[in-house]
Design goal:
The chain has helices at 3-13, 16-46, 52-79, 87-106, 114-141, 150-184, 189-214, 228-231, 236-248, 251-281, 286-314, 316-336, 341-377, 382-410, 422-448, 454-468. It has 482 residues and is an all-alpha fold. It has one domain: Growth Hormone, Chain: A (Up-down Bundle), CATH 1.20.1250. The chain starts with a helix and ends in a 14-residue tail after the last helix.
Length: 482
């Protein structure tokens, strides 16, 4: 079978229906992930009555604990032999409903003392992130197993971002509009957030269940994995540790992981302080906040598919660099200008597109790393690769949220005050726009050193096929990425 014919077969299997149905899970992923990062500290401080430093610490402890479980789930999903649903879809199916349930519980206030309430929310956070990991790591990893085509993997991530954008609109517009509606009805904030959690938890569960059913048995490696006993000596922990150590020997993975970590530190600071920035620095009311979030979300949806096609043409590194430069300019502008609603909408459109490009590209980069890993070590480890990247990204977001809470306390930002002082407004500008500038600059430097591209990864895949067939091959075309 020729290489061209083999690629044609694989591409035909990845039809539009599969790409779209895979993308639907992105709505559940976005809602579960971002309702936490965008609203959880706000909920803890404004509804549950927990001070910002404690709220940031709750998030840090829970997410860091969950980050430890990421490699375990990823490795288990790699080694699981699968059933009629396949390796990854079984995990998604098992975790979808519990995840939806904990999205609801996460936003239910409880009548406890301050210390007991903090401990309660730490435990709920741990449970929430455990089920998110069980669902999300296999969900991301399976995209590398339903096709071998370099560009198709990018298109699958584009589909995810398209549906994620719909989830983002629900979060940024729907929640604020519903809060206003409930306030006009004289309903309490506690009831409002219970309803928000229940509705969005249900949407999350349905989205992932839909994707799990659609991907039933489509991962090509479902039954191929050998047992640990047959191919490696040592117990589960020793083998997992060795595989992880081998992964970090790959320089291109270290660069990818670093980009993911730094971006998510930026995201943790930015998302958890955005609402405060719009309220207290820009002095927007809820209607203005809803408007500046609604239109950027809608417009970005229109551009996600064309942007994904542009990334395919430009290459992942170029697309990532452009996105980082946009983020840098965005932060610099907001350091010096208090925007009008129109300017803020324009800036948020740029932010949405830059963020979408990151999430399209970063996991597609990890799928390329999986090919390098297989060439070097003879094993498929998408789950491990994605889970270790998830560990670093979650740690990054947790550190960013914690940093936001700590700096808010140090600069004496009090979200409950009725009169906003100029010093409080300036403090939030430093947090939302000033801190990210340094983080983004380092991201640009790291990305500039990344060397994987379509040409050398295609050459590697061809050499890998020859290697498996016992034929001679050359490293010359791709030795710079090994």
């Amino acid at each position: 079978m020729s290489k061209d014919f083999e690629t044609k077969i694989i591409t035909e299997k990845l039809d539009l229906k599969t790409t779209v149905m895979y993308g639907i899970g992105g709505m559940g992923e976005d809602i579960a992930y971002n309702i936490f990062y965008m609203f959880f500290i706000f909920f803890l401080t404004s509804v549950a009555g927990i001070n910002p430093a404690a709220a940031g610490t709750i998030s840090l402890i829970a997410v860091m604990w969950d980050a430890i479980t990421d490699p375990i789930v990823g490795y288990l999903s790699d080694r699981y032999k699968g059933n009629k649903f396949g390796k990854r879809a079984t995990f998604i199916l098992a975790g979808a409903i519990p995840l939806g349930l904990f999205v609801f519980i996460l936003f239910c206030d409880v009548n406890l003392g301050q210390t007991a309430k903090i401990l309660y929310f730490i435990m709920i956070n741990i449970a929430f992130w455990m089920f998110f990991t069980i669902v999300d790591i296999p969900y991301i990893a399976v995209a590398s197993e339903v096709t071998d085509d370099y560009d198709s993997k990018t298109r699958m991530r584009t589909s995810v971002l398209l549906f994620s954008a719909f989830g983002q609109v629900i979060l940024t517009v729907g929640i604020l509009k519903f809060m206003d509606f409930m306030a006009l009805q004289g309903k309490s904030d506690v009831l409002t957030w219970k309803i928000i959690g229940a509705v969005l938890g249900t949407v999350t569960a349905i989205a992932f269940l839909t994707t799990a059913v659609a991907l039933r048995g489509k991962d090509r490696n479902a039954i191929k994995e050998e047992t640990v006993k047959n191919n490696q000596s040592g117990g589960f922990i020793q083998v997992a540790f060795k595989d992880a150590k081998d992964l970090f020997h790959i320089k291109q993975y270290r660069l990818t992981a670093c980009m993911g970590f730094l971006y998510n530190v930026f995201l943790g600071v930015s998302n958890s302080s955005l609402l405060y920035f719009l309220m207290f620095t820009c002095r927007f009311d809820n209607n203005q906040i809803a408007m500046v979030n609604f239109w950027p979300g809608i417009i970005s949806i229109m551009f996600i598919v064309p942007m994904g096609n542009l990334i395919v043409k430009l290459g992942k590194k170029s697309g990532m660099l452009i996105g980082f430069i946009i983020l840098f300019v965005y932060s610099v502008i907001l350091c010096f200008i208090t925007p009008s609603t129109f300017l803020m909408m324009a800036l948020l459109i740029c932010l949405c597109l830059a963020s979408a490009s990151f999430w399209i590209i970063i996991y597609a980069m990890n799928f390329d790393i999986a090919e390098i890993y297989e060439f070097k070590y003879g094993k498929r480890r998408e789950g491990l690769i994605i889970s270790l990247s998830s560990f670093l990204t979650k740690a990054g977001v947790a550190i960013g949220m914690w940093l936001n809470g700590i700096v808010m306390s140090l600069l004496r930002v009090d979200p409950t005050v009725e009169v906003v002082t100029e010093s409080m407004s300036s403090a939030l500008r430093v947090i939302y726009a000033g801190i990210p500038i340094g983080i983004i600059f380092v991201m640009i430097v790291v990305c500039s050193r990344y060397k994987v591209n379509k040409k050398n990864i295609t050459e590697l895949e061809q050499a890998l096929k020859l290697k498996k067939d016992g034929e001679e091959y050359s490293l010359e075309a791709f030795k710079n990425i090994l």
